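Re: your question from the hallway

Yes, I did run it. Sequences:
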Amino acid sequence: DAGVIQSPRHEVTEMGQEVTLRCKPISGHDYLFWYRQTMMRGLELLIYFNNNVPIDDSGMPEDRFSAKMPNASFSTLKIQPSEPRDSAVYFCASKGVPGLAGVEQFFGPGTRLTVL
Amino acid sequence: KQEVTQIPAALSVPEGENLVLNCSFTDSAIYNLQWFRQDPGKGLTSLLLIQSSQREQTSGRLNASLDKSSGRSTLYIAASQPGDSATYLCAVFTVPQIGGGGADGLTFGKGTHLIIQP
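Structure:
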């Protein structure tokens, strides 16, 4: 298995532009998570899905952020409009059943976003 | 709200030493605790996962312990090598509170930046 795949690996954009980050979870995994990592705040959970349904988006910072999972093998995290303070590394992770509690999360390589 | 703290924030030791990284968490109602390694500019690699009912897990030169009641975990690295240099992250998966509140993902500490000197 190729593991969790994220694209792009690096994204540089200007303030106000729309940014779309993509993730392909490990095949067969039922849970997908989006995290953000910054120097100041460390790693924070933004949103997670179970069977393509968003379960908890309480970590999404603002309405400028949205996430979708149209099918079991693809998810997007969109920022519109982007701001310099959104600059961070965004990680996608997935985990499978059985049991939400007993299984490791596997992380993708991350997307490093820079908003100028 | 769960909070995870890792001490020390940074550590530099000569090759060959045994070392201990510490992790503490405020809410002991956890499903499991996971230790990760992160190399510069890279993603996270899972090292060990300890279920809440377990006391420790071992993988090669790594040993992780868990004392859930006191909210503590340690990662022990034996005979350290330069290749062990990385940031080590501790994360807990907290039992969701009744009535909602708190996401079901992992809560991370800010990590211990480890340098092993050749």
